[in-house]
Design brief:
By secondary structure, this protein is mainly α. 61% of the residues lie in helices and 0% in strands. It is built from 12 helices and no strands. Helix 2 runs parallel beside helix 5, helix 3 runs antiparallel to helix 5 and helix 3 packs across helix 8. The protein is elongated. It starts with 6 loop residues before the first helix and ends in a 13-residue tail after the last helix.
Length: 315
């Protein structure tokens, strides 16, 4: 990317690449918000209680009157955008790549924070996995990951004419999107800092978005793979986020799923560290010891268990 170019040209190339990825990322958020509204309407919930950050913007070219969407098409559109985002997320320079990942990942978590208004989890929450895999370049099987964790797109046998029309429409849509991306890349924002090339989709804090996804993935999936994948990616690129929730780590996730297998818990609790001194903590324990003693004594007596003394040690 940088050979035989002066520094000014190199900066221009980086800006163009960031702008190109931003266009793809913005279209991914459009697809995500469209799916979110559709799934909310299926549940007969108000789709308008959630803030729209991408739908209806000048880069949203949907005409749902001319091209009436279906349930499958909402998911297929998001799957397609995840794949195009993956192709746009590659940078020859590792430092620029990391800056891009951090910026887009933070923005994605800030978008997910807005879903705290919902009292349920669905495929939109699960979609964070293929989107983050795309922007981190963790795997080239984005489609497979999407179908595994989000939605299995049905395989339908089509005639040659139908296949031709689908390919033709797909190519036309790709060319149209590429045209607008090129136009935006050739007219970048006046600002020169990296974050100015990331269109904001803020609906809350990144920390709240992180909490939402941890809760969603641990509740929705019977295996630890998706939540561990999510945790590892956030911990790698946004460690300041994971450090704020000290009780979430790979060991805690494994323990959670062991307990889930035994039918004890369904969701991990995100606890932020408390600003209390050790002395205050001991004071609270001193008040609890008598209560603990009586409860243990009551249980032992109820089961006719003989004992000489009861020692309770909280470490």
């Amino acid at each position: 990317m940088f050979w035989n170019k002066n520094k000014k040209d190199q900066i221009g190339d980086v800006q163009a690449q960031l702008q190109s990825e931003d266009n793809n990322f913005h279209r991914t958020i459009i697809a995500l918000e469209r799916l979110e509204r559709f799934l909310n309407s299926e549940r007969q919930r108000s789709a308008f209680e959630l803030k729209l950050t991408a739908v209806g913007t000048d880069r949203d070219y949907h005409d749902d009157v001319k091209n009436v969407p279906t349930r499958d098409s909402y998911f297929m559109e998001l799957a397609l955008q995840c794949n195009t985002l993956y192709m746009a997320a590659h940078y020859d320079d590792s430092e620029v790549f990391r800056i891009a990942v951090e910026s887009f990942m933070k923005d994605l978590l800030e978008w997910y924070a807005g879903r705290h208004l919902l009292d349920y989890y669905d495929e939109v929450d699960a979609s964070v996995i293929p989107i983050m895999v795309a922007i981190t370049y963790e795997s080239n099987n984005v489609s497979e990951i999407f179908q595994k964790y989000v939605y299995t797109i049905p395989s339908v046998e089509r005639t040659q004419e139908e296949k031709y029309i689908m390919v033709k429409e797909g190519v036309e849509a790709w060319l149209l999107g590429k045209h607008y991306a090129d136009v935006s890349a050739n007219n970048p924002p006046i600002q020169t800092d990296n974050e100015s090339y990331v269109t904001p989709h803020v609906r809350g804090t990144a920390l709240d978005g992180y909490k939402r996804i941890i809760a969603a993935l641990t509740t929705s999936f019977d295996t630890s793979a998706p939540v561990k994948m999510f945790y590892k990616m956030v911990n790698k690129y946004l460690p300041d986020i994971t450090k704020q929730i000290s009780n979430i780590n790979e060991e805690a996730i494994d323990e959670l799923y062991e307990r889930k297998a035994q039918g004890f818990v369904t969701e991990i609790k995100c606890s932020e560290p408390k600003n209390e001194t050790r002395a205050e903590s001991h004071k609270d324990l001193d008040q609890l010891y008598p209560l603990l003693y009586e409860k243990v004594k009551e249980i032992l007596d109820a089961h006719n268990i003989k004992y000489s003394e009861i020692n309770i040690d909280v470490k």
